[in-house]
């Protein structure tokens, strides 16, 4: 059974139609990537799920139930956490306080502040530091940790490699694989094919708001996707 499913989705911002007949799915325990150049609609997939883009046609289902859209205020309670593009660390709050913001009432699971510190030891060292005072890579760890505090069934990451040094991206990939191995499903929205190959098992390619290619990543070369993906 699919954990997240978009079936024949058209979505828009006002009169600007962005997604065209998009169908994709993430099953429990899967690691799936959405690839594509800037401006092709990758982030709009997330925004459609969260009600930030208008669903014009088709449906969105989560956990096997058609939900139309999963509103931002109820997503965490439903078991969906998003690490947004740009990280959106709250200024003026410490690392620890930013983590507590991600907790979802009544969501039970293994992720606590201490568990996040175990995954990202640097956050323990910087626990009382303002979140925005850390490096880009450390802020990305904080954004992921904050999302994990809701103990999600599905973690969506929107361009997590943006602005990060290659060595930090490599470490990020290792940590995402650990999360998947621990049972968290992952939907990775990304242009960095190296990170995608490390983390994901299946992929979808978006171009001009439509899915133009999909398949398994095993054995796939960089060359086979370069016509669609900016790396």
Terminal residue distance: 32 Å
DSSP strand tally: 10
Tally of discrete structural domains? 1
Structural class: alpha/beta
CATH architecture verdict: 3-Layer(aba) Sandwich
CATH class: Alpha Beta
The number of helical elements comes to 8
The ordered H/E elements are EEEHEEHEHHHHEHEHEE
| Mean pLDDT over the residues | 89
Q: Please state how the strands of the largest beta sheet are arranged side by side.
A: 6-7-8-3-9-10
Helical fraction equals: 25-40%
Q: Could you tell me the CATH topology label.
A: Rossmann fold
Low-confidence segments, given as residue ranges, are: none
Report the principal-axis shape: globular
Largest sheet: 6 strands, mixed
- Rg, alpha carbons: 17 Å
CATH superfamily: P-loop containing nucleotide triphosphate hydrolases
Provide tags for this entry.
ABC_transporter-like_CS, ABC transporter ATP-binding protein, transport, 10 strands, six-stranded mixed sheet, 29% helix, 231 residues, alpha/beta, ATP-binding, four-stranded antiparallel sheet, single chain, Rossmann fold
Write up what this structure looks like.
With 231 residues, this protein is of the alpha/beta class. It has one domain (2-225): Rossmann fold, CATH 3.40.50. It is 29% helix and 29% strand. It has 8 helices and 10 strands. It has helices spanning 42-49, 75-78, 95-101, 113-119, 121-125, 136-148, 166-181, 193-199, and strands spanning 2-13, 16-27, 31-35, 54-62, 65-66, 80-83, 154-158, 185-190, 202-207, 210-216. The protein has a 6-stranded mixed beta sheet, sandwiched between helices. A 4-stranded antiparallel beta sheet has the order 2-1-4-5, with helices on one face. A hairpin with a 2-residue loop joins strand 9 and strand 10 (210-216). The protein is globular, with a radius of gyration of 17 Å. The mean pLDDT is 89.
